[in-house]
Amino acid sequence: MRRMTGALLAAALACVHTARADGLDPTEQKIVAAVKAHAPQALALLEQSVRINSGTMNARGVRDVGQLFRKAFDDLGFSTRWIDMPPGMHRAGHLVATRDGNRGKRVLLLGHLDTVFEPGSPVPAWQQGAGDGRVRGQGVSDMKGGDVIVIEALRALQRAGALDGARIAVMFTGDEEEAGNPKSVSRGDMVELAKRSDVALSFESNIPDNEGQATATVGRRATATWELQVQGRQGHSMGVFGTNGYGAVYETARILDAFRREVAEPGLTFNPGVILGGTDVTLDDANSRGTAFGKTNVIANTTVVKADLRYLDYPQRDRAQARMRDIVAHSLPGTSATIAFHDSYPPMAVTPGNLKLLDLYARASQDAGLGTIGAVPAEARGAGDIQFVAPLVDSLDGLGASGHGAHSPDEDLDVASIERGAVRAALLIYRLTR
Q: What is the CATH number of domain 222-345?
């Protein structure tokens, strides 16, 4: 699908903001009523899931949350299965639920079971506020709140008699926060589901705009990693800048500062997350840690930098990598350097199909009296599972619950956003599958 830019994108988004409210038909009114009538049960399911620690590396906890949600899908008449990952990947696996039908579009719903909070985290599992309508806890908004929205939306469709005949697949991954490698394996089943779908909806947390209005995501930046290795000529520090050259640390500083000054452009970021330098460097790549030894009177001979790169599309990636390689090649005297890039998540390009989905979602929200929906800039979100399927099907993300402080001790959730999210999602799924 072709990426939409400039005036065409602005015009399309303007159409979204002015979508006309057409009201709800009788079935849709039943769907909305079903969501609202079962809001307490939704909160109870959220609490039950959040109280189970499911840090990405806690395979047992991830499976336990998967079993909790699997029962909900079983009760809805879905065929469910657990997909194990190879033992060497050290990941719990994924929950898949499917329901065959004969009408409407084939819809793929995405969520994830894991959180960034591993066992032993000091962050409380669950804390309910004192009448402020918010809860805090491990993964409440990222993204167990979104998982609950999926389930509650489907339950409402069933209660309104609107689920039969719909063609729906659901995949809740067990390692979204740190996807297992190779990703061709950890996301292979997701890609196959996408190939048998027409639309993909992902329920990562909803990000309200500056006025508190809900949004959705039509594009996300790709991610890659890069590693810079620099070599210098070890010698007495009295010879630095002269016969012994500049050393590995100065060359590393030159390269990184040149990246900052000469490579940056809108939508592109590159972040050096780990730097080790000295005369003896050891990097534990698997655990992203290492050691460095050196002395102030010895010129450093080695530096290693591990970093990420985020870009809007492949042309932007190619421009950035070409500039970075050119900067690396112009070494200071007495030094040499190499840089290597590794792609990770593909870009979710802004396409006409994605914008059409946003328009349908905004109409459903307006028809339910919940206001319009804006679009989140691609650079305002991190990487997500939707990016593995977006090149294959029209896609929309950010349909989950609203909260603050994701991945932090202050992660919280606006409880009412579960009801709002379930109403919007149920109406959108209903309209797609009619």
A: 3.30.70.360
